[in-house]
Design brief:
Layout lengths: L4 H5 E2 L2 E4 L25 E2 L2 H4 L4 E5 L1 H15 L2 E6 L2 E4 L3 E2 L4 E6 L5 E4 L6 E2 L6 H16 L9 H7 L4 H12 L3 H18 L8 H7 L5 H12 L3 H13 L1
Parallel strand pairs: 1-8, 2-9, 3-5, 4-6, 5-8, 6-9, 7-10
Helix pairs in contact: 3-4, 4-6, 5-6
Length: 245
């Protein structure tokens, strides 16, 4: 029964399983869209955006899940367009009910399910924390909301169409972190990256830490030392000494 799941979620896409017959004859099956559709609120699953290969040999599971999550995070509902090609899936791909996946090209994209791959499913309640956590991390990586000093867990929950309780539970259960810990980690990592790129020689340290989301120097200094074991000035001196060797 699970092998039929991709047909439910994929519009104009055929699924092929190792050791099994194709669910749809890929050689004669054509897509509804023969050219790339234009939709400013859609996500296009291609090599340029996700660094994947449509060769039927390279596993695209993580990249495809990321594309689906992008639609949910940015637009709450919408479409992931997939061009003609062969796509190997080895992991469960969770497709929210508000997201559709549509193929385009001269032929329908072929979805190849690796042996024992569950394929496509709606999120199971037991996996919702993991899915929400993945959406949180993707949101942090892509939108960088932590750069705003007034960013809080309520705003994060609203951006993900969730609530503070669910967000907090996902962070604690999957990430083993509290909200403030996650925010501060991202802020400190940004400061460290800018120091590594010598931006402290071009901008003041205050400009760097406020750009990362810190509003007070005392808070920044305390969290920076907790994270690195040294003060910002000591950290900069250590970096310079290493480079001079």
């Amino acid at each position: 029964m699970k092998r039929l799941v991709p047909i439910i979620f994929f519009v104009s896409i055929c699924a092929v399983c190792f050791g099994q017959k194709a669910l749809i004859n890929a050689s004669t099956s054509t897509s509804f869209y023969t050219v790339m559709p234009v939709d400013p609120e859609a996500v296009y699953f291609n090599a340029e955006s996700f660094g994947m290969k449509a060769d039927g040999k390279t596993d695209v599971s993580d990249a495809l899940q990321k594309a689906i999550n992008q639609v949910k995070i940015k637009y709450n509902f919408g479409i992931v367009f997939i061009p003609e090609g062969k796509y190997l899936i080895s992991k469960t791909i969770y497709v929210p009910q508000a997201v559709r996946i549509i193929g385009y090209g001269a032929k329908r994209p072929e979805i190849i399910l690796a042996e024992n791959s569950p394929g496509f499913q709606t999120p199971d309640p037991a996996d919702k924390d993991q899915i929400l956590y993945s959406r949180i991390i993707l949101y942090f990586e892509e939108e960088k909301p932590y750069q705003k000093a007034d960013f809080n867990i309520r705003k994060l929950a609203e951006s993900l169409d969730s609530n503070s309780t669910y967000v907090s539970r996902a962070l604690n259960k999957i990430g083993n972190k509290k909200f403030n810990q996650l925010v501060n980690d991202y802020r400190i990592n940004q400061v460290k990256a800018e120091i590594a790129n010598n931006l402290h020689q071009k901008f003041t340290l205050e400009h760097i830490y406020t750009s990362a989301g810190f509003s007070q120097q005392s808070t920044f200094n305390r969290i920076f030392k907790e994270n690195t074991g040294s003060t910002p000035s000591e950290y900069i001196d250590n970096i310079q000494q290493i480079r001079e060797k």
